[in-house]
Write a structure and sequence with these properties.
156 residues; mainly beta; 7-stranded mixed β-barrel; two-stranded antiparallel sheet; 13 strands; 3% helix; DUF6917; DUF6917 domain-containing protein
Length: 156
Amino acid sequence: MNPHEDGAKRDVSATLLKVLVHRRTERGMRLEPFASRCVRAGEVHELVATDHTDTAEGARIDRVGFLGFAEITAAGVVDRGDEVWIGPRRVGVVLGFDACHTPNHYNVLIHADPAPTGRELALRPEEPVVFRQGSPGTVAEVFRTPSAENVEECPK
């Protein structure tokens, strides 16, 4: 979030469709130059955890844990720094986007350290996914926050 440009926004909601359970250490994804993407209801995007923190255009993302695919249920804007919640778990924060599979789908890269897989988080199809506006701060501050913490519910 850029506090000099960004005002409040609504949460982007989605539903987990498929759980992924694998990881890679040499994936070779490349960070897109965009800090945000608009998403439409009905689109399906892949959720990928990584411990990388570099947000430079073209940064190589190798260490990843695949979480799953989610269908967007309420359109909106997903921004770098947004918190990502799956069910009661705060999985991490949006690092950026990889477009190697577009126009089929984006890989939404989520900073989490360590980077879990869907199996390691015990994810299940039909769990709600929420992209919630993150707190203003520097990139370093945003990516220092704890990841994959379990809470009773996603705070409103």
